[in-house]
Amino acid sequence: MTNTISIGATVQMIQRAKGLSVKAITDNERIISKSTYYRFVNETSHIPADRFMQLLGRLELTLQEFDFILHHYQLPPVEQLLQQIQRAIGAQDSHQLRQLQARASQLAQVTHAHRYDQLTTLTRLALHRLTTPHQPLDQSLETALNAMIQDLLNLQLWSKYDLMLCSQIFTSLAPAQQTILLTAAHKSFHKYQQLTDETLTFMTFLANQLFSAVHNNQPQLITQIYQMMTTLTLPVKQLVPPLLLKFCRGIVDDLTKQDQSLDACKQALAIVRCLHVQYWDTVFQDVLNDLQSTST
Questions:
Q1: Pick from 216, 203, 126, 236: which is nearest to 174 by CA?
Q2: Which end of the chain is more exposed for a tag (fewer CB within 10 A), N or C?
Q3: Exposure on the CB side of residue 10, measured as CA atoms within 13 A
């Protein structure tokens, strides 16, 4: 989360707007005591991340919805910049990435906000992959990347921003670093997996890393990620998470069984086509192409 000075006050504002009593939002003090709640909303003390997520549950808000309200009903500037960087990376636009690197670096100097330093590192890493992909990272970039990894490992609670950041650096990491980061994200996620939107976000994150592992021929990582996916409580009335799990099960079956039929993958693809889910139709087909080209 960002802008931590007003988090407690924002919780109280939403609580009052929804007409909830302190007794109701604290679940009759099962989450935190009334005195702790008042200290939290008055910004005189902090509460554990899992308790905060329980309060959001009582407010019937996702973490992303709360962050949106916290930042006056718009994406935080750092997230807007991250989205622009993601688009430039997807377009392989080195000119745009250099401009965004300069902007992130300038904002880091002006605001002293650590996340702009992270985005500066991210753009440097993306430019390295585009312009000198076969050369090792220089010492300053490797140091900055390791600092970003440590930042993620130190988080109590991963947000969607942190998952997006991790996704962008993931393929540049050594297998041991990938496993450590995935484990940290998984541990954090279990603190708030009862919330539907976060379940879908995290399931999608894991699936995308698994698909990257297919493309990069990392069978051990594929198995590790799938095992994490099977521990998640899937949200009711949402089709995408179980379809992602089914498709990924087909990939693991292909790795561990001799028939290599990819039946579960093909079934999941057929379902998303019937439902006209174009995004996952394209992704599933691309991953199947990767699998089939590898097997031949």
A1: 216
A2: C
A3: 20
Please give the C-alpha separations between residue 112 and each of 55, 64, 77, 102, 166, in angstroms, as whole numbers: 30, 24, 14, 15, 22
Question: Does pLDDT of 74 surpass 80?
Answer: no
Contact yes or no for 81/104 (Cβ under 8 A): yes
Write the DSSP string, 272-293. HHHTT-HHHHHHHHHHHHHHHH
Measured over the CA atoms of residue 80, residue 81, residue 86 and residue 87, the dihedral's sign is: positive
What is the C-alpha separation between 289 and 283, in angstroms, rounded?
A: 10
For residues 101-121, give the mean pLDDT. 92
| C-alpha span between 87 and 44 (Å, rounded) | 40
> Is the torsion defined by CA of 80, 86, 91, 96 positive or negative?
positive
Q: Is 181 helix (H, G, I), strand (E, B) or coil?
A: helix
Tokens standing for residue 32: 């935190």
Read off the pLDDT of residues 190-220 as tens digits, 9 standing for 90 and up. Answer: 766 555 566 778 889 999 999 999 998 899 9
pLDDT digits (tens, 9 = 90+) for 57-73: 888 887 777 877 887 66
What is the Cα–Cα distance from 181 to 173, expressed in whole angstroms?
A: 10
Tell me the two tokens of residue 132: 């000198």
124, 129, 135, 139 alpha-carbon torsion, rounded to 10°: 20
pLDDT over 50 at 2, yes or no:
no
Report the C-alpha gap between 245 and 110 in whole angstroms: 44
| 223-228: Cβ within 8 A, 24+ apart | 223/252, 223/255, 223/256, 224/179, 224/182, 225/182, 226/251, 226/252, 228/182, 228/186
SS3 percent helix, strand, coil of the chain, rounded to 5, is 75, 0, 25
First-residue to last-residue Cα distance in the chain: 46
| 101 and 81 Cβ atoms separated by less than 8 Å | no
Rounded to whole angstroms, the Cα distance separating 110 from 65 reads 28
